[in-house]
Design brief:
2 copies of one chain form a homodimer.
Chain A: H1 5-12, H2 16-23, H3 31-44, H4 50-57, E1 61-69, H5 73-88, E2 94-102, H6 106-115, E3 123-126, H7 132-143, E4 148-151, E5 162-164, H8 168-183, E6 188-194, H9 200-216, E7 220-227, H10 232-245, E8 249-254, H11 259-266, E9 276-280, H12 284-291, E10 297-300, H13 303-319, E11 333-335
Parallel strand pairs in A: 1-2, 1-3, 3-4, 4-5, 6-7, 6-8, 8-9, 9-10
Antiparallel strand pairs in A: 10-11
Helix pairs in contact in A: 1-2, 1-3, 2-3, 5-13, 6-7, 8-9, 10-11
Chain A binds a DNA duplex (16 and 16 nucleotides) through residues 2, 4-6, 14-21, 23-24, 28-30, 33, 48-58.
Chain lengths: 341, 341
DNA sequence: CTGAAAGCGCTTACAG
DNA sequence: CTGAAAGCGCTTACAG
């Protein structure tokens, strides 16, 4: 049988209440008594039963998720996964609050963070847009012992407990390797289309992409990045215009969201049929584009995995339980037509 | 506040014990009383707190995992993940027993299954080798209400509760698409190397692979499958011999394990440097081969994910809790040099 | 600084 | 067929 608090109390010759105080590092216990209890714990190999503790505490985890609003399919997918997780949260003593702020708007994000009632919040996960005020607001949370997890888009490591998302430089490199090999030696130009060059993840993907193209596929030339603001309508206009002006385009790397716009342009003229297309994020649109051969590869991060991982990490931080690193590593997933879910 | 058994008891005008009987579908309650309690449950929207129930029951999940022994790196990886999971099992009221049987030996597997003490086992996960006796043994488990999950390699659906693994036909198709595109239009022959054509997953991968090659890459020709018994030493001999005999080989699809042998042969002669290689399962060996350009792509299934998924599924079957389907779907992962973990 | 007793939401003998 | 009481492993006022 696993030892319990009773065994520890007996071994240490103290009461349950004192064992509990030591276990939870509550003040008001003589140093000598603390040592005594800790010895008993070590001797018996005692491990606390967290569900029993949570039951007694009537613990409820109140987690706040802050995500961007707007016409971005990937973010919609993320929100959808959050709603899914909410359904199961009844079984897990977890409350999820979903807050939305304007995309790429650091001021709005800071306002929300500053408005949080710290006494009501046990943990925060956010898709970060970096700014001084945002970083300060995060610091305030952490000083109040509220764990913070960044989702999809990171801030500097000192301001959060964990980052849940992919290495975007590596994602860009992956896109480039696929692009180079799929183009298959034909020389030509590569069009780059991002949401905004003010967002860290898009910048990083581009860096990774150009690294590999210039190092390993000298026959390919990356053109200036076009920005579609992660909006299908803007994207369509920008890309249509661009493809008409440029010659010899053999590949398109769509760095951000707005895939619907990309697809509309590419299917608008048979001339674009031979362009190799690598895009990001598996959504209904990109899934279909892969099936129909409009896209050749999609780099994805699993939004469901990210949501569940963020929840586990916040809980683990609160319960001070260990984390399985590999389970919390978000993969750079490659999808082609044949391995779609 | 969430309603508890007390609220239900009061609402239904019965005692806690009776509520519990109804909740757990124990016999010896008047139909009328059952209905009454169920009404109260519905009215209050009561959901049972499973950790409290497990605490009261002192429930321990005893899970048996049966995996093949032998020199197969992927299976070693699986075993390693199981040992990892064992470390965390203290926190989860879970005991994991790992049993090993000779690979591809249905008789040995049946013996182990038949030898299980059903009163000591709450759930079984196994890498299946199919045979009449194995199927009968599985049926016996399920008749005793012990959930069964197949891992990596499946049996017919009627004999298990869940399959945790990938769709191997789709995996083969994925390998073929990558192969075809990476070869890039050069005509030539493709060498196929499997562990054994008696194992379902290898057969299925081959089927998927040949489907796509013949339909979409007519310039490529699949040669007869060679068998290396998932053993690096055998594999090396078979492959070395084969590559010396055959001409015009532009690609190699390694369907099974034994990657170490494949790598040794391929690096033994510069003549093999231009062969496009697609293999299965990310291990230390294949990881390195990707980094060094010996392999071009590796199709993987995440052993850690599979182990955790099997545990969750067995638990959910016992607790009768819902399952998040997407979380339990094992991905056909594609790795190239750039998206390695 | 420390302890005895009650309670978290369930289940389990035992009695009737 | 049904219920009162004790208990699972922890925590929480309250008293001293």
């Amino acid at each position: 049988m696993r030892p319990t608090v009773h065994d520890v109390a007996e071994e240490a010759g103290v009461s349950l209440a004192t064992v509990d105080r030591v276990l939870n590092r509550r003040p008001g216990v003589r140093a000598k008594t603390v040592a005594c209890v800790n010895e008993a714990i070590a001797k018996l190999g005692y491990v606390r039963d967290i569900s029993a503790a949570n039951l007694a505490k009537q613990r409820v985890y109140n987690f706040v998720f802050i995500i961007p609003e707007g016409p971005n399919s990937f973010m919609h997918g993320l929100e959808n996964e959050l709603r899914q997780a909410k359904l199961y949260s009844a079984f897990e003593r977890t409350n999820l609050d979903i807050l939305k702020v304007r995309a790429f708007d650091a001021e709005a994000l800071a306002n929300v963070l500053e408005g949080l009632d710290l006494s009501q919040v046990s943990g925060v996960a956010l898709v970060a847009t970096e700014s001084e005020r945002v970083l300060e607001a995060l610091l305030r949370l952490r000083q109040a012992n509220i764990p913070v997890v960044t989702l999809v888009s990171d801030v500097s490591a000192a301001h959060r407990d964990h980052y849940v998302g992919i290495d975007n430089v590596a994602a860009g490199r992956t896109a480039a390797s696929l692009m180079g090999r799929f183009v298959g030696g034909r020389p030509g130009k590569i069009a780059l289309l991002a949401g905004s060059m003010l967002v860290r993840d898009h910048v990083e993907r581009r860096v990774g992409f150009e690294q590999v193209i210039s190092a390993e596929f000298p026959e390919l030339d990356c053109l200036t990045v076009q920005e579609g603001r992660d909006d299908a309508v803007v994207t369509r206009a920008v890309l249509a215009d661009f493809l008409e002006r440029e010659r010899d385009i053999v590949g398109l790397y769509s760095i951000g969201a707005g895939n619907r716009g990309v697809i509309e342009v590419l299917t608008s003229s048979p001339a674009y049929g031979s362009i190799v297309v690598v895009a990001h994020e598996l959504t209904d649109h990109s899934n279909r584009a892969l099936r129909e051969g409009v896209f050749d590869a999609v780099i994805n991060q699993d939004a469901g995995h990210e949501v569940r991982s963020a929840i586990r990490l916040l809980k683990a931080a609160i319960d001070e339980t260990p984390v399985i690193a590999r389970q919390e590593t978000i993969r750079i997933e490659i999808y082609i037509r044949d391995n779609l879910l």
